Each structure stands twice: as structure tokens, then as C-alpha cells.
UniProtKB/TrEMBL annotation:
It comes from Maioricimonas rarisocia. The gene is hicd. Residues 5-336 form the Isopropylmalate dehydrogenase-like domain. Pfam families: Iso_dh. GO terms for biological process: isocitrate metabolic process; tricarboxylic acid cycle. One of its GO terms (molecular function) is NAD binding. This is Homoisocitrate dehydrogenase. PANTHER family: DECARBOXYLATING DEHYDROGENASES-ISOCITRATE, ISOPROPYLMALATE, TARTRATE (PTHR11835), ISOCITRATE DEHYDROGENASE [NAD] SUBUNIT ALPHA, MITOCHONDRIAL (PTHR11835:SF34).
């Protein structure tokens, strides 16, 4: 059996704790992965490097996949966010965040099953900000036909492959006529010309947020530009139990970086209480990505077994504090490991 080499970035705050818990589960499940560890974030700075060291970027280019813990970017010291830099330098233009209700995690809604697809390279994250006068500062929202078309095509292809029925674009094209207008035009165009099989809808984002919290079941795949995708991801995380249970992938043409939606959670770092599930779910996405792009069925099988094990653990009431349980990070990982390959 062949193994896949992959980059592992433990990151900052709760990063190292959740990363090592996830590594243990992957190993116990027999995931055919071999890690090459690299640094980013404050940890890299402390080692005298840049927040995003060249060799970390190079390693991801070379190996094609990475599992990344949350990285902190020092505020207001002239550093560009690690995450934004990484997405730009590797052109990881599609962020994918599946959000689904979990048995055993009590929330307002049952049967939430959404996928958020976020454009990851432009919009207000272009980083173009200016001091215009003493009184005026400005941030530039950038949209290109290339990136808008690319993400729309990616979303429709994803929906088709995953047997999803409908894509809804959240926008504010009534106000931002040019930028959001372009985003909409490109999505419409791809829908009409290439994917008429998928239902397509457009909703103004403020109304969309209201609809999401009233009845999330009416949505399937959401397609959003960068900032809207960021905000709506956390909103949707709240629908299913919070940031501890939402994984993410940042995908480009040749590389993909898998990471939880949550940040470094400095408030609970070092206490051994963080929920490792979001990162574990991200690792499951990594395995499925390897299965799809490299045709490795072992990866698909391991991913499926891990998913069954954590679903069982939650249904049995094994939970970390953020979900109302009393297990620490490692005890929760153990509860998952115990349930790997348990007869049903
Ligand atoms: P960053 O600046 O790195 O994004 P942040 O201050 O935005 O960090 P998040 O990490 O996004 O914080 O977390 C927001 C809240 O959710 C915090 O109270 C944190 O403790 C909680 N939280 C985030 N991730 C987890 C997790 N994996 N397990 C438990 N609680 C979490
Ligand atoms: Mg945050």
C-alpha cells in the first residue's frame, strides 16, 4: 500500500493540541499518510522566520496537500494574515465548508446540510487599502471576471459531483452594482451555459441571513464572495453547534490546504479542552480529496470509517465542553478511536 506525504502545520493557540489529537485518530484508523511538519504563524516568527516561511509554502507546492492548524497573525505590526497569504500564493481560490447537523449535538435545527463555497482570493480581502487624506482611509473591493467565473464553475462542478440540487448566491448587487453585479453575472452565465442541471437562485445577503436562521433547510449549496463567505460560515457554524464542528478546505488547481474554520482560540489554549473535531473533519476531507484526485480507495475507506466513529461517539454522548460535554481534547479523541470499526 502506498502512503501519501502531506504537510502538517500545527499552528498557534489550540493548534498543536487539536493537531496531535487528530494525528492519533488518523494513525489508529490506518490512514495512509506520512507527515512532513512545517511552521507558520507566531510559532514561525518565534523561530526567527517570517509568519509564512518560504519553505512551508514550497513544501505544500511540492506535496500538494496540507493539514493546517489555526495560525495567529500579530495584529497591527505590518504582517499580512498567514491564511490570506497562503491562499493567495498558492492560488487556493475555492474555500469549501460543509455544515451539517450531528446526532447528539443539540441545536435549534435538525437536518441542516449545507455547503458553503467561498471565493478565496479577492473582494475586500485584496488587501488594497489607502490613506487618502488625514481624514479618509479606503479599502478596495476587487472583482475580476476570471476569479468570479472560476469559482462559479468550481461550485457548479462540485454540486454536480456531490449530487447537490441547488446553488444559491448571496450578494449585495443592489448596492455594489459593479463588483457583486459581476459575481452574479458570471454565476448566471456558468449556470446557463454549462450546468442547467443544477437549480440556481440569488438572494440579497441581508435577507439571506434572516432566511438562514429561520429555516436553514431551504438552502443546499451557498456560493459567496470572500467577505460574505467568511461571515456566513461562522453564522452557519452556529446553526450546527459552533466552530468546533465545522471543517474547511482551501482548494486550488494543484494544491489543497485543509483547516478548521475556527481560529487559534487563545482563550482556551493550553488547557486541553479544545474540540479537535473540526480539524478531524478537515482531515477526513483531505482523505476524500486524495481519493478523488489520486484514485486511492484506501483513503476513501479510512475517511468513511473515521466519520462513522465520530458520529457514534457524539451520539453516545462523548463530547467536549463547547458541545456541552465534559471530555477534554485527548479523551474525546480516545472515544473516537475506541469506536473505530466497532460492529454496529
Ligand atoms: P483567531 O484570531 O485566531 O481567529 P479568535 O479570537 O477569532 O481567534 P476563534 O478561535 O475563532 O477566536 O474562536 C472563537 C470562540 O470559539 C472562542 O471563544 C473559542 O474559545 C471558541 N472556539 C474556537 N474553536 C474552538 C474549538 N476547537 N473548541 C472549543 N472552542 C472553540
Ligand atoms: Mg476568528
Amino acid at each position: 500500500m502506498s502512503t501519501h506525504r502531506a504537510v502538517l502545520i500545527p499552528g498557534d493557540g489550540i493548534g498543536p493540541e487539536v493537531t496531535s489529537a487528530v494525528q492519533r485518530v488518523l494513525q489508529a484508523a490506518g490512514a495512509p499518510l506520512e507527515w512532513e511538519e512545517h511552521q507558520a504563524g507566531v510559532k514561525a516568527l518565534e523561530n526567527g522566520d517570517d509568519v509564512l516561511p518560504e519553505e512551508t509554502v514550497e513544501a505544500i507546492r511540492r506535496l500538494g496537500v496540507a493539514l493546517k492548524g489555526p495560525c495567529t497573525t500579530p495584529v497591527g505590526e505590518g504582517f499580512t494574515s498567514v491564511n490570506v497569504q497562503l491562499r493567495k500564493r498558492l492560488n487556493l481560490y475555492a474555500a469549501v465548508r460543509p455544515v451539517r447537523s450531528l446526532d447528539g449535538v443539540q441545536t435549534r435545527f435538525e437536518n441542516v446540510d449545507l455547503v458553503i463555497i467561498r471565493e478565496n482570493t479577492e473582494g475586500l480581502y485584496s488587501g488594497v487599502e489607502n490613506q487618502v487624506t488625514d481624514d479618509v482611509v479606503m479599502s478596495m473591493k476587487v472583482a475580476t471576471e476570471t476569479a468570479c467565473t472560476r469559482i462559479a464553475r468550481w461550485a457548479f462542478r462540485y454540486a454536480t459531483r456531490r449530487d447537490r440540487k441547488k446553488i444559491t448566491v448571496f450578494h449585495k448587487a443592489n448596492i455594489m452594482k459593479m463588483t457583486d453585479g459581476l459575481f452574479l453575472r458570471c454565476a448566471r452565465q456558468i449556470h446557463k451555459a454549462e450546468y442547467p442541471n443544477i437549480e440556481y437562485d440569488e438572494v440579497i445577503i441581508d435577507a439571506g441571513c434572516m432566511k438562514l436562521v429561520q429555516n436553514p433547510g431551504q438552502f443546499d449549496v451557498l456560493l459567496l464572495e470572500n467577505l460574505y463567505g467568511d461571515v456566513v460560515s461562522d453564522l452557519c457554524a452556529g446553526l450546527v453547534g459552533g466552530l468546533g464542528v465545522v471543517p474547511g478546505a482551501n482548494i486550488g488547481e494543484e494544491q489543497a490546504v485543509f483547516e478548521a474554520v475556527h481560529g487559534s482560540a487563545p482563550d482556551i489554549a493550553g488547557n486541553g479542552v479544545a474540540n479537535p473535531l473540526a480539524l478531524l473533519m478537515s482531515a477526513v476531507m483531505l482523505l476524500n480529496y486524495l481519493a478523488e484526485t489520486r484514485g486511492d480507495d484506501v483513503c476513501r475507506d479510512v475517511a468513511g470509517r473515521i466519520r462513522i466513529a465520530y458520529d457514534r461517539a457524539l451520539a453516545d454522548g462523548a463530547k467536549t465542553g463547547d458541545l456541552g460535554g465534559d471530555l477534554g481534547t485527548d479523551a474525546f479523541a480516545d472515544a473516537i478511536i475506541e469506536r473505530l470499526d466497532q460492529p454496529s
